[in-house]
C-alpha cells in the first residue's frame, strides 16, 4: 500500500515470501499496525517477521552468546559477544501445542533424529525419520530442521522450533551444549 491503512492497487506487486526488507517506520491505523518498507510501500506488520535486536543478554542468560526465539514475531536471533550474528524465520508451536517460553540451555545435539507421537486418542499422530540438526533445549522440545514444510514465520509445530534445513545446519554448527535459549 502507498500509505498505512490504504488498499493496495491491483497492479501492486506482492511482497515475496522470505524477502529481507528494511523497516523505515511503523504506524498504527485503527487496530492494525503498519510497517513502512520503502518510501512508497507499507505492509501490515503482522505480514512480516520482525527481528528485534537485543544486544544485552536477557534476564537469566549468564553468557555472552545465546539464541533468542521470539514467539510473537516467529523469528530466531543468534548473539555472540552481545552482537547479532544471525537471524531467521521459524515455526514454533501452534495452537494447543505452544512452545513454552523461558530460559533454557541446549542439553543435547543430534545430526539426525526420529521423532514420533502415537496416541490412539490423537488424530494427528506422526512419525518423522531423519529430522536434521536437532538441538534439544526443553524436555522433548528442540530446535531442528523441518523438511516437511515451508511456511516459516507461522506458528504450526507441535512445540518444537522448526527451521529451514539450511538455517538449522548453520545453528547446529554454531551452538554448543550448554548454550542458552531464551
Q: How would you explain this protein's 3D organization?
A:
The chain has one helix at 165-174; strands at 25-29, 32-38, 41-44, 65-70, 75-80, 83-89, 104-105, 108-117, 126-138, 141-145, 161-163, 180-181. The chain has 182 residues and is mainly beta. The strands form three sheets. A five-stranded mixed β-sheet has the order 6-5-4-12-7, with no helix packed on it. β4 and β5 (75-80) form a beta hairpin. The radius of gyration is 18 Å and the shape is globular. The two termini are 35 Å apart.
- Low-confidence segments, ≥5 residues, pLDDT <50? none
Could you say which structural class the secondary elements and strand pairing correspond to?
mainly beta
Order of helices and strands: EEEEEEEEEEEHE
The shape is globular
- What's the count of strands? 12
Side by side, the strands of the main sheet go 6-5-4-12-7
Largest sheet: 5 strands, mixed
Proportion of residues in extended strands: 35-45%
Q: Compute the CA-based radius of gyration.
A: 18 Å
Q: What do the pLDDT scores average to? A: 90
User: Distance between the terminal alpha carbons, to the nearest Å?
Assistant: 35 Å
Helix content class: under 10%
Note the total helix count: 1
Amino acid at each position: 500500500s502507498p500509505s498505512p491503512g490504504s488498499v493496495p492497487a491491483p497492479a501492486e506487486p506482492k511482497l515475496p515470501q522470505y524477502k529481507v526488507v528494511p523497516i523505515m517506520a511503523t504506524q498504527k491505523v485503527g487496530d492494525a499496525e503498519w510497517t513502512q518498507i520503502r518510501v512508497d510501500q507499507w505492509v501490515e506488520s503482522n505480514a512480516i517477521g520482525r527481528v528485534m535486536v537485543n544486544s544485552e543478554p536477557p534476564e537469566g542468560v549468564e553468557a555472552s552468546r545465546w539464541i533468542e526465539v521470539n514467539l510473537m514475531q516467529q523469528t530466531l536471533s543468534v548473539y555472540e559477544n552481545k552482537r547479532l550474528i544471525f537471524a531467521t524465520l521459524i515455526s514454533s508451536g501452534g495452537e494447543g501445542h505452544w512452545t513454552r517460553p523461558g530460559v533454557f540451555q541446549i542439553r543435547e545435539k543430534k545430526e539426525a533424529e526420529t521423532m514420533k507421537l502415537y496416541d490412539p486418542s490423537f488424530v494427528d499422530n506422526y512419525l518423522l525419520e531423519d529430522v536434521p540438526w536437532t538441538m534439544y533445549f526443553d524436555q522433548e522440545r528442540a530446535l531442528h530442521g523441518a523438511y516437511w514444510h515451508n511456511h516459516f514465520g507461522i506458528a504450526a509445530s507441535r512445540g518444537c522450533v522448526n527451521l529451514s534445513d539450511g538455517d538449522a545446519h548453520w545453528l547446529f554448527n554454531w551452538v554448543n551444549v550448554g548454550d542458552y535459549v531464551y
